Amino acid sequence: MHEYSEPDEHWMHHALALADRARREDDEIPVGAVVVDARGQLVGEGWNRNITDHDPSAHAEIVALRAAGRALGNHRLLGCTLYVTLEPCAMCAMAMVHARIARVVYAASDPKTGAAGSVFDLLSDPRHNHRVEMRGDVLAEEAGARLTAYFRGKRGKRSD
User: Fold this and answer.
1) What residues have CB less than 8 Å from 49, skipping those under 6 apart?
2) Buried b vs exposed e over 8-35: b needs ≥16 C-beta within 10 Å?
3) Gap between the Cα atoms of 49 and 150, Å rounded
4) Given this model, what pLDDT does residue 147 score?
């Protein structure tokens, strides 16, 4: 059994609830994201909306970053932590770098398109003028189970 910090576990559970909403409300891939400021206050949240909104950039992380930017009145999200149920892709990772997110905490790794170490390591690449602290594998089994069930359902396979 993994040990997590209380805030990391709390906010990842919140992101998992948003992932459930993505599947239930929009029939989207169940990925949820939350942005928390340096004081531990929720400033943005979102779930995958790219299919629903016909927007290839509307991944959970981007939706949450946009909400946080509006809430804080700034495109720089200094001191903020982004929690997401799936390892960020290259697009989302670079948006985090440009937003100057301090920290990213993700649940399940993405061995196909992950950009936080699985396929690419964009968040800590020393060539950027900003590096993002990362922590993975927080409630990964719970997030992975949601993704597996979603894709099995789409393929018409029984979910175990």
Assistant:
1) 22, 26, 28, 55, 58, 60, 63
2) bbebbebbbebbebbbeebebbbbbbbb
3) 15
4) 94
- Contact between 72 and 58 under an 8 Å Cβ cutoff? The reply is no
The pTM is what?
0.93
Confirm if 68 and 35 have CB atoms less than 8 A apart: yes
Strands (E), 9-146: 32-36, 42-47, 81-86, 103-108, 133-135
User: Tokens for 87?
Assistant: 């390892």
Low-confidence residues of the chain, pLDDT below 70?
1-4, 157-160
> What is the pLDDT at residue 62?
98
Which active-site residues does the annotation give? 61
**Cβ–Cβ under 8 Å, residues 42 and 80:** no
